[in-house]
Write a structure and sequence with these properties.
Distance between the termini: 56 Å
Shape: elongated
Number of strands: 16
Strand order of the largest sheet: 4-3-5-15-6-16
Number of helices: 10
Radius of gyration: 24 Å
């Protein structure tokens, strides 16, 4: 094997193909032709002397040798990047790109603004923001950090609890004028509910009363949606009642376009967490964004930071 043929560029290409399982996806990600990706892999395999990938018409998978080589390659690339950061000192922290995934509505309404502030402070750091409510594979998608609402089960990621997202029951004044205002939780089954189709159990509304007592009431309605911004539009249009995150509707409440109903009965808050890919956690620019978001996220309406 000629070790001079094992370049960092070829190693990075191999790592991303191993993670994504697709030559075309990696070519789009790197901004090169698929033939370039294929050439990098062929040259790396020639240099190493063993097949690293197994190709079929549908997917690319790593061989046993490829899996071992992948694990070592990830560590090597991480060390190379960290060494560059340390050599450049403070300037090393302020260059490069961070990829972040965020729950869609929260990202549109609030997190994007925080990222603008972050880039004003560190103008040489690029940020790729991906907005999705799906629980994506962070490593496969090349994501460094993810902000997620709800319970998490991925134990392979570093987790940083950011707080709890407080929720309210809200509706438009026009809807309440036409249908009357609920006085107690037991009035809710007679109303139109705006429900999230991507949340299990949305046909039952769990509320906590002023004395800590819990109420579970049926919650139905003709409109279901899988995106928070569409639920927000349905609320403004007077289509019904919904349990909404405070940050989703704070401006509409301030403008009088929505009103809080049953203020003494609150839906359970939802945990907000940050997931960090362990292999990326030590990179200076990633640490900067992690710390920045952890500090600033409490300024979003309704986010109660951990005590």
């Amino acid at each position: 094997m000629d070790r001079s043929d094992v370049t960092l560029e070829r190693m990075r290409t191999f790592v991303r193909v191993g993670e994504r399982g697709s030559l075309s996806a990696v070519a789009r990600e790197l901004g090169v032709g698929q033939s370039t990706v294929t050439r990098h892999l062929r040259e790396l395999e020639d240099a190493v002397g063993v097949p690293l990938l197994s190709r079929t018409t549908r997917r690319v998978t790593m061989t046993d040798e490829g899996s071992r080589y992948y694990a070592d390659s990830v560590q090597i690339l991480r060390l190379v990047e960290q060494a560059g950061d340390e050599a450049r000192g403070t300037r090393g922290a302020s260059a490069g790109t961070i990829r972040i995934s965020c729950t869609a509505a929260l990202g549109v309404l609030h997190v994007s603004r925080l990222i603008f502030d972050f880039q004003d402070r560190y103008p040489d750091i690029g940020v790729d923001l991906s907005l999705t409510d799906e629980r994506i594979d962070l490593v496969r998608e090349g994501v460094d950090i993810a902000l997620r609402l709800g319970p998490l089960t991925d134990s392979s990621m570093k987790l940083r609890a950011l707080g709890q997202s407080r929720r309210l029951l809200v509706a438009a004044p026009a809807y309440l004028a036409a249908r009357s205002r609920p006085a107690v939780p037991q009035d809710l089954p007679g109303h139109e509910g705006i429900r999230m189709s991507n949340i299990a159990g949305s046909d039952t509304l769990a509320l906590q009363g002023p004395g800590g007592e819990r109420h579970a009431v049926p919650f139905g309605g003709r409109f279901r949606v899988d995106h928070g911004l569409a639920a927000r539009e349905a609320l403004v249009a007077g289509r019904g009642i919904a349990p909404a995150h405070h940050w989703l509707v704070d401006d509409l409440l301030a403008a009088g376009r929505l009103e809080v109903i049953l203020p003494d009965y609150a839906p359970s808050p939802i945990p907000l967490s940050m997931l960090i890919v362990p292999e990326r956690a030590g990179i200076a620019r990633v640490r900067l964004l992690v710390d920045f978001l952890a500090e600033r996220i409490g300024g979003i309406p309704g986010i109660e930071k951990p005590r």
